[in-house]
Specification:
The protein has a domain of 58 residues: F1FO ATP Synthase. It has three helices and no strands. The two termini are 37 Å apart. With 106 residues, it is mainly alpha-helical. It is 83% helix and 0% strand.
Length: 106
């Protein structure tokens, strides 16, 4: 967890520093528009939703397979909650996609 936090903070810090280093003067040559920021936000929304859903699905399947491997008789009791959990996680990713599309088309 600590390595992930360090990697995220490094990435965010590099984004902040690079934007300052590559900033242009006030001559108006590079104007950031609201449409560009909305597109950037939409892309981040889709990426974060997909990352969260994929991570959750991987961990859920890992736990279910491990539980079935330890107790093969529990297969029927583990299967339905696993499928429901995977469906809810996929719905989360789809909602992120829908929200991003609504932002972009706004």
């Amino acid at each position: 967890m600590r390595k992930v936090l360090l990697a995220v903070m490094t990435l965010v810090g590099s984004f902040l520093v690079s934007s300052l280093a590559l900033a242009e003067g006030g001559d108006g040559a590079s104007v950031v528009t609201a449409a560009g920021l909305i597109a950037l936000g939409s892309g981040l929304c889709m990426g974060i939703a997909a990352f969260g859903a994929a991570t959750g699905q991987g961990r859920a399947v890992m736990a279910a397979v491990e539980g079935i491997a330890r107790n093969p008789n529990a297969k029927d009791q583990v299967f339905l909650p696993l499928i429901l959990g995977l469906a809810f996680m996929e719905f989360q990713a789809l909602m992120g996609f829908i929200i991003a599309i609504l932002w972009y088309l706004k």
